[in-house]
Q: What sequence folds into this?
């Protein structure tokens, strides 16, 4: 048996999320269907760096699977791309040591969140950005970003439905916001994330930009551990799993 | 009765083209359904500057319809946008004289065609650009564009299935090609177009860029009036109806 790691992109708008679900079109479901065909009907399970919700996109999701097929990594890329639907693309395939695990070995994950500030909606962006045509003090948003950097208990900024067991402490290495024309791109680099955490952080930053909240309130919000005090969960269409980093040494 | 003109955009990827067809999802069908609702079940017909094929997009398609509803043009824009599906957007609505006709009064139409030259396909562009990862001499393409400008019989560069009666003579005011990163944007401004004409002209220009044809051959191609001598019809996903111009005086 050998282990193959793939870096994949997908347009989340046609999927009921990453994770396989009976009767739903999912990224995992589509890729496992193809792998099962390649293995002559023998089911093959894939493991990802983590799930993404319905409508969430990926530029650099990472998966791995085990196989007894001896084709080269380059052939894996070709074979998979010939068979997966057009809203999934295998950007890279490589052989990895048996010890590699796409989920357990993650060192850092980067998410981007795209907000479109155009006055009117753009039909071509409806699946690819959150349309937010309201007044916003972008400087305020940008200055508040760093308040979320560092190691914190993010309970306030995660879904109450979060099923994460154990510590709610996570470390964000970078939180920033770039302005490109009428788009804002939020960038998050962190060791890990709680459920809906990026979308709630963006919702909170937009609240701050609208003057509904102060950056100075953030330490208190962390301390209160109450989801109801944070901003709303912004919609999935603006969210992109951008990049997953693994330890090179391993 | 009053006449309302609307400028609309739509993402063509979810439509079986502009024109209404039984059992198919079309732009005309969706808008007429909404107008019929607004008119309490009385069917309302809309007239467009022209059809667009399945998968073709529009940034500035123009339609008109007649109505006995007295709401203001601004209210028409709001009412329609509240009811049309999210892949259609009414950019502008205005009252026009009874004599206006969205199709017969067209003075100029502008189309853009987007070619993506990235080496690998981009899942986010699969519906919005023609992926053409092959070697191309962009300078050759750009220099050849002007050979199509002016008044010509475009029989060679239109679908053999074209149903246009009468003259196949059309005037192109501008044919150009801009390079933006790894995208080529072809721009066509003309008095009118034959069926598939823009897509065949782009296919021919790409042939010239690949060295399969010479710009110097174009006069001869025009003269031969034979569709088989031109390049292939490039796919619909790169094509955008960009802008329709009407005579201001009228």
A:
């Amino acid at each position: 048996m050998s282990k193959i790691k793939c870096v994949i992109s997908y347009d989340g708008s046609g999927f009921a999320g990453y994770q396989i679900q009976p009767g739903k079109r999912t990224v995992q479901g589509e890729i496992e269907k193809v792998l099962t065909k390649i293995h002559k009907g023998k089911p093959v399970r894939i493991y990802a760096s983590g799930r993404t919700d319905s409508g969430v996109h990926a530029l650099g999701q990472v998966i791995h699977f085990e196989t007894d097929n001896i084709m080269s990594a380059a052939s894996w890329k070709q074979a998979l791309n010939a068979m997966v639907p057009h809203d999934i693309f295998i950007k890279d395939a490589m052989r990895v040591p048996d010890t590699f695990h796409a989920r357990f070995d993650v060192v850092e994950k980067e998410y981007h969140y795209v907000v479109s500030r155009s006055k009117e909606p753009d039909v071509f962006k409806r699946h690819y950005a959150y349309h937010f045509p309201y007044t916003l003090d972008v400087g305020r948003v940008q200055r508040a970003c760093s308040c979320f950097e560092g190691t914190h208990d993010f309970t306030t900024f995660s879904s109450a439905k979060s099923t994460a067991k154990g510590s709610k402490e996570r470390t964000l290495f970078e939180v920033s916001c770039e302005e490109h024309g009428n788009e804002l791109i939020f960038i998050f680099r962190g060791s890990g994330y709680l459920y809906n955490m990026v979308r709630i952080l963006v919702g909170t930053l937009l609240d701050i930009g609208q003057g509904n909240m102060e950056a100075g309130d953030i330490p208190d919000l962390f301390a209160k551990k109450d989801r109801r005090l944070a901003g709303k969960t912004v919609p999935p269409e603006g969210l992109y799993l951008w990049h997953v980093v693994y330890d090179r040494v391993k």
User: Anything to note?
Assistant: Strands of chain A lie at 2-10, 47-48, 57-67, 88-96, 106-116, 130-131, 150-153, 169-180, 183-190, 239-246. DSSP finds five helices and ten strands in chain A. The domain at 2-96 of chain A is CATH 3.30.70.580 (Alpha-Beta Plaits).
